[in-house]
Design a protein that fits this description.
Layout: E1 3-8, H1 14-24, E2 31-38, E3 41-48, H2 51-60, E4 67-73, E5 88-89, E6 93-98, H3 104-113, H4 124-136, H5 141-151, E7 156-162, E8 169-174, E9 179-182, E10 187-190, H6 193-196, E11 202-205, E12 211-214, E13 219-222, E14 228-229, E15 234-235, H7 251-257, H8 259-268, E16 271-272, E17 277-278, E18 292-297, H9 299-316, E19 320-324, H10 325-331, E20 339-345, H11 351-362, E21 366-371, H12 377-381, E22 384-387, H13 400-419, H14 428-446, H15 450-459, E23 464-469, H16 474-488, E24 491-496, E25 513-517, H17 524-535, E26 540-545, E27 556-561, H18 570-589
Parallel strand pairs: 18-19, 18-20, 20-21, 21-22, 23-24, 23-25, 25-26, 26-27
Antiparallel strand pairs: 1-4, 1-10, 2-3, 2-4, 5-6, 6-7, 7-8, 8-12, 9-10, 9-11, 11-15, 12-13, 13-14, 16-17
Helix pairs in contact: 3-4, 4-5, 8-13, 8-14, 9-13, 9-16, 10-11, 13-18, 14-18, 15-18, 16-18
This protein binds fructose -6-phosphate (F6R).
C-alpha cells in the first residue's frame, strides 16, 4: 500500500528519495511524488503510473533541497491521477500521508468556508490546509501540527515539511506504521524499514499516537498527550534487506525458490532437528488451559488459518473456529475466559487483522500472532508472538510467507498438543520428522519446473479455472485460486472437492481446466470419484498428486507429481505446486507479476 520516505540532512535529497521509493514499490502503488524545500520555497514533482514516469520528470526538471518527502500512493480517496498524487502542498506545508482521514468531508467544508481552495479529491489535502490554517492564525509550526492532529479522525502516518523552516520535518503516526531512521548527517522517516535500509540501520519505531519533530541531528518524540517521550533505537536486521532478484526474473520466483531455506529456518526456531523433538518452550501463556481457539487473517493468511484448524483440531483436540479478520468482530462472537485468539499476518500491519486483534484484546482475550515482520504493530500488540522467518517478502503475491506460516502453525499445534497432554494420540516424532523432510522435498520439486511451464500454455488460454481439494488440502486449493487470480488475472475459484456437485459443476465443460489437489491420503478415493464426475462432463483435469497418473482413473490434461510425504506436510507441497502454476501462467500472460494491478503488499486500510 502507500509508502512514505522523508529525509532531512545536509546534502541534496532528491536522488535518495527516489532510491527509497524504488524500494517501496513492492507495496503496490499507482502514482508517486516527491517534494523538497529550498531557499524558503517548496516544490514538488508527481506522476501517475510507475516510478519511471516520476524519474524522467525529475530528470528533466530536477528538485534542489536537503529536506524532502516522497510517497507512493495506492488510491483510496480520489482516482489515481497526478493531481491526486502526494505530496499535497500549499504555500506553507507539504504533506505525505498513509491511511484514511474519516472526517475529512466535514473538515474540508469547514476549511472551504474559511476560504481554503481545494485542488484534489483526496482526504490528505485537508491535512495540509488544516495545518496551514493554524499557521496563518498565528500558531508556530509545531503547535499548528499538534492542533491539526487533534482534529483528525481515522488512521494516518504523516510526513510534513515547511516552506518557512528547512530544518524541521514532522512525522506522526496513528494506526499506520512509521519509523524514524538515525543517520550520521541526516535523519529519515519511513513507512517501513525497507525504505530506510539504504541509509541507516538504527531505527526508532513510533508508537501509536506518537508524533516527532525531526531535525538533521535528532528527533524529539511526543506521545498522544503531547508529552515528550523516549523511544528506543533498534538495529535493523540487515539480512532481511537483501532485496535483489538474484538470477531470477521476478521476486515471486526468487521467493518460491527460497522456500526450502526459509521453511527450514522457521522450523529450526521450534524444533530440535537432530532429536526430532520440540525445543523446550515457554511462551508466557499457559497453553494447557486453552479450551477454544479462534484463528483469523486475511487473504493468504486466512487460508493458512484454515490449514491450522485441521492440524489443531486433529492433534491438539481443541475446537477451532476461523474467520476473515474483516468480518470477525462484526459477528461479536461469544467468548470464553480460556479461549485464545490467534492472528496470522505476514506484514503484521494489515488493518483488518489489527482491528480484529484489538477487539479481542479489549475483551481481555489472550492474543497470539504468527507474524513475519517481528517489529510490526500486530507483533507488538500481541501477548504471544510465534515468528515466521521468511525474510522480507517483496512479491505482492505471498508465497514463502504462506509456507512459513504453515510451518510455524504446525509447530505451535505441537506445543498445544503437548501442553494439552494429548500427545499420545499421535506420533510426535513422526510428524516432526515429516516437517523436517519438507525443505528437501520442496527443493526436489523446484528442480524441474518444465511440467508447470508446459501446463501454463494451456491455462493461459482459459477464462476460468477451478481448484479442488479435500480435507487439509482444501484451503490450499483456495490459495491456489487466489494466486492464479492475483498474478495472471485469470478468473479462478477454489472449492472443497465434494462441494462441486452441489452447484459449481454447472461450470464444467471442455474449456475449463480443473486443478485437483489429490495427495494419496485416506480421502484420495473420494477425490478420484469427484474427478470422474468432472471428466465425464468434459472437464480437463490437472492431477496434483503423489499417486501415479493411472491411479487418476481418467484422462488428464496434466499430472504434476508431488513427492511422497507425511500427510501433515502435504499442504506445504501442494502450496508449492499451486504457486508454480500461477507463476508460470502469469509469465505467459505477460502480467506485472511482482506488482499486480490494483494490489498492495501491506493493506493498511480497512
Ligand atoms: C495474497 C496476499 C494477501 C495477503 C493479505 C494479508 O497473495 O498476499 O492476500 O495475504 O493481504 O496480508 P498479511 O499476511 O500481511 O496480513
Amino acid at each position: 500500500m502507500c509508502g512514505i520516505i522523508g529525509i532531512i540532512g545536509e546534502n541534496s535529497v532528491s536522488d535518495d528519495l527516489i532510491k527509497s521509493l524504488e524500494r517501496l514499490e513492492y507495496r503496490g502503488y499507482d502514482s508517486a511524488g516527491i517534494a523538497t524545500v529550498y531557499n524558503g520555497r517548496m516544490d514538488r514533482r508527481r506522476a501517475n503510473g510507475k516510478l519511471k514516469n516520476l524519474i524522467s520528470l525529475i530528470h528533466n526538471s530536477p528538485l534542489k533541497g536537503s529536506t524532502g518527502i516522497g510517497h507512493t500512493r495506492w488510491a483510496t480517496h480520489g482516482r489515481p491521477t497526478e493531481r491526486n498524487a502526494h505530496p499535497h502542498m500549499n504555500e506553507d506545508v507539504s504533506v505525505v500521508h498513509n491511511g484514511i482521514i474519516e472526517n475529512f468531508r466535514e473538515l474540508r467544508s469547514e476549511l472551504e468556508k474559511a476560504g481554503c481552495i481545494f485542488y484534489t479529491e483526496t482526504d490528505t489535502e485537508t491535512i495540509a490546509h488544516m495545518i496551514s490554517y493554524y499557521i496563518r492564525h498565528g500558531a508556530g509550526i509545531v503547535d499548528a501540527v499538534g492542533r491539526a492532529l487533534k482534529r483528525l479522525k481515522g488512521t494516518f502516518a504523516l510526513g510534513i515539511i515547511f516552506s518557512t523552516d528547512e530544518d524541521i520535518m514532522i512525522a506522526a503516526r496513528r494506526g499506520s506504521p512509521l519509523a524514524i531512521g538515525h543517520g550520521n548527517t541526516a535523519m529519515y522517516i519511513g513507512s517501513d524499514a525497507i525504505a530506510l535500509a539504504p541509509f541507516t540501520s538504527a531505527v526508532t519505531y513510533l508508537e501509536e499516537g506518537d508524533w516527532a519533530v525531526i531535525s538533521s541531528k535528532n528527533a524529539i518524540i511526543r506521545d498522544s498527550n503531547d508529552e515528550v517521550v523516549q523511544r528506543s533505537v533498534t538495529a535493523l536486521e540487515v539480512c532481511n534487506f537483501q532485496m535483489g532478484k538474484g538470477n531470477h526474473r521476478h521476486y515471486m520466483h526468487k521467493e518460491i525458490h527460497e522456500q526450502p531455506e526459509v521453511i527450514s529456518r522457521t522450523l529450526s526456531n521450534y524444533i530440535d532437528k537432530a532429536e526430532l523433538k520440540l525445543h523446550p518452550f515457554d511462551i508466557g501463556v499457559d497453553l494447557s488451559t486453552i479450551d477454544r481457539i479462534i484463528i483469523s487473517g486475511c487473504g493468504t493468511s486466512f487460508y493458512s488459518s484454515l490449514v491450522g484448524r485441521y492440524w489443531i483440531e486433529r492433534y491438539a483436540c481443541i475446537p477451532v473456529e476461523v474467520d476473515f479478520s474483516s468480518e470477525l468482530r462484526y459477528r461479536e462472537p461469544p467468548l470464553s475466559p480460556n479461549s485464545l485468539a490467534l492472528f496470522i499476518s505476514q506484514s503484521g500491519e494489515t488493518a483488518d487483522t489489527l482491528a480484529a486483534l484489538r477487539y479481542f484484546k479489549a475483551k481481555h482475550q489472550t492474543v497470539a500472532s504468527v507474524v513475519n515482520v517481528h517489529t510490526s504493530t500486530i507483533a507488538r500488540e500481541s501477548n504471544v508472538v510465534i515468528p515466521t522467518l521468511a525474510g522480507s517478502e517483496v512479491g505482492v503475491a505471498s508465497t514463502k510467507a504462506f509456507t512459513c506460516q504453515l510451518s510455524a502453525i504446525a509447530c505451535f499445534c505441537l506445543m498445544l498438543a503437548k501442553s494439552q497432554k494429548n500427545v499420545t494420540k499421535f506420533n510426535e516424532r513422526e510428524i516432526i520428522s515429516g516437517l523436517v523432510d519438507a525443505p528437501n522435498l520442496i527443493a526436489a520439486m523446484l528442480s524441474d519446473e518444465r511440467p508447470f511451464n508446459n501446463l501454463a500454455y494451456e491455462l493461459a488460454k482459459a477464462s476460468n479455472v477451478l481448484y479442488l481439494g479435500r480435507g487439509i488440502n482444501c484451503p490450499v486449493a483456495l490459495e491456489g485460486a487466489l494466486k492464479l487470480k492475483e498474478v495472471s488475472y485469470i478468473h479462478a475459484e477454489g472449492y472443497p472437492a465434494g462441494e462441486l456437485k452441489h452447484g459449481p459443476i454447472a461450470l464444467v465443460d471442455e474449456k475449463i481446466p480443473v486443478i485437483v489437489l489429490a495427495p494419496k491420503d485416506k480421502l484420495f478415493n473420494k477425490t478420484v470419484s469427484n474427478m470422474q464426475e468432472i471428466a465425464s462432463r468434459g472437464g480437463r483435469i490437472v492431477f496434483v498428486s503423489d499417486a501415479n497418473s493411472d491411479e487418476a482413473g481418467c484422462e488428464l490434461l496434466a499430472h504434476l507429481p508431488i513427492p511422497k510425504a507425511h500427510p501433515c506436510v502435504m499442504p506445504l507441497l501442494c502450496a508449492v505446486s499451486v504457486q508454480l502454476i500461477a507463476y508460470h501462467t502469469a509469465v505467459i500472460m505477460g502480467t506485472d507479476i511482482d506488482q499486480p494491478r490494483n494490489l498492495a503488499k501491506s493493506v493498511t486500510v480497512e
